[in-house]
TrEMBL record:
Name used for this protein in its record: GTPase Era
Coiled coil: none
One term under GO cellular component: plasma membrane
Pfam families assigned to the protein according to its UniProt record, in alphabetical order: KH_2, MMR_HSR1
Subcellular location: Cytoplasm; Cell membrane
Summary of subunit composition and partner proteins: Monomer.
The organism's place on the tree of life at top rank: Bacteria
Domain Era-type G: residue ranges: 45-214
Biased composition, class Acidic residues, residue ranges: 1-14
Region (G4): 164-167
Function: An essential GTPase that binds both GDP and GTP, with rapid nucleotide exchange. Plays a role in 16S rRNA processing and 30S ribosomal subunit biogenesis and possibly also in cell cycle regulation and energy metabolism.
Region (Disordered): 1-42
Gene behind this protein: era
């Protein structure tokens, strides 16, 4: 087997229901920046909201719920969000730019340290912070460490508390948890939500809209994210790999979009490279007879076609790079600062 393996052209996704859309200058569907902000009464508001919490607290699920589309990777595995993912949501005359940060945890590797640094950096730049805590897990050691860090990290920056997965515990447990959390930190507001089911999410979004500073909108009204399409495409493929491989493969893989070609028929050809750390990992990604990578390619291609509203030709290759976790270029592709990984 060669170092690079390509999925066959015949696996291409059928045409999406919608035709090609005009792309904004950053590659995302959208209108000119600012949208149509005239003709309605009242000032416009815009600001950044950072979502923080332990890994798997539900930040990505909440971000996708708020935006109304999938812009952040969601799996049952922890630490799947690596970079700061910004999703753009409209709430009346307010534009809320949500920053889905990597989960806050005790870092051990260079990649871990870079992810945690990105998380706290996203918090520092935000107008409002929302701390997500899982209702059924309560105040864990990790949550306690975050609570203890808030005064030093944020000063007087307002922080709201969102207790997530409320369907998993009884009401008296929720009330006690809310009291304990507010005793540990002076949250400006507490919300009981289920990001997956949507309970309480509308109330949180409405309140955040009123808390945003008066400002022109920062992005086109119909733009969903400020990530380059190349990174969104890579994240979609990485999510499919994570879901497909379950416990078989460590987190030591990454996906990069190497080329993106717009075709005359309105479709896009996307070539991606999957980097793994060991030769044995490559075989796992490929699967017997290429079965695994074909399934991953098909799932990623279909989701990309739906997201873009047009046909996508996706080609995946696998390459072994034993030291990719120590390569500066890999961190740049993930939207992380290589220097933040220094011990």
């Amino acid at each position: 087997m060669s170092d690079q393996d390509q999925t066959p052209e015949g696996d291409e996704t059928p045409d999406a229901a919608r035709g090609p859309e005009a792309l904004h200058e950053d590659g995302l569907p959208g209108a000119p920046i600012g949208g149509d902000q005239e003709g309605e009464a009242g000032p416009t508001r815009a600001g950044y909201v950072a979502l923080i919490g332990e890994p798997n607290a539900g930040k990505s699920t909440l971000l996708n719920r708020m935006v109304g589309a999938k812009v952040s990777i969601v799996t049952h595995k922890v630490q799947t969000t690596r970079a700061r993912i910004r999703g753009v949501a409209m709430e009346g005359r307010s534009q809320i730019v949500f920053v889905d940060t990597p989960g806050l945890f005790r870092p051990r590797r260079r990649l871990d340290r870079a992810m945690v640094a990105a998380a706290w950096s996203g918090v520092a730049d935000a107008d409002m912070v929302v701390l997500l805590i899982e209702a059924h897990r309560g105040i864990t050691d990790g949550v306690r460490a975050i609570l203890d860090s808030l005064p030093e990290r944020l000063g007087r920056k307002p922080v709201a508390l969102a207790i997530n997965k409320i369907d998993k515990v009884k009401s008296e447990v929720l009330l006690k948890l809310a009291q304990d959390c507010n005793a540990a930190h002076p949250f400006v507001k507490t919300f009981m939500i289920s990001a997956e089911r949507g309970h309480g999410a509308a109330d949180l979004k409405e309140w955040l809209g009123t808390e945003m500073p008066e400002s022109p909108w920062l992005y086109p009204e119909d733009q969903l994210a400020d990530l380059p399409l190349r990174m969104i495409a890579a994240e979609m493929t990485r999510e499919k790999l994570t879901l497909r491989l379950h416990q078989e493969l460590p987190y030591e893989l990454t996906v990069e979009t190497e080329s993106w070609q717009e075709r005359e028929d309105g479709s896009a050809r996307i070539d991606q490279m999957i980097y793994v750390a060991r030769e044995g990992h490559k075989g796992i990604v490929l699967g017997k007879g290429g079965e695994t990578i074909k399934a991953v390619s098909k799932a990623a291609r279909e989701e990309l076609a739906e997201f873009l509203g047009r046909k996508v030709h996706l080609f995946l290759q696998v390459k072994v790079r034993p030291n990719w976790l120590e390569e500066k270029e890999r961190y740049s592709e993930m939207g992380l600062d290589f220097r933040d990984g220094n011990g």
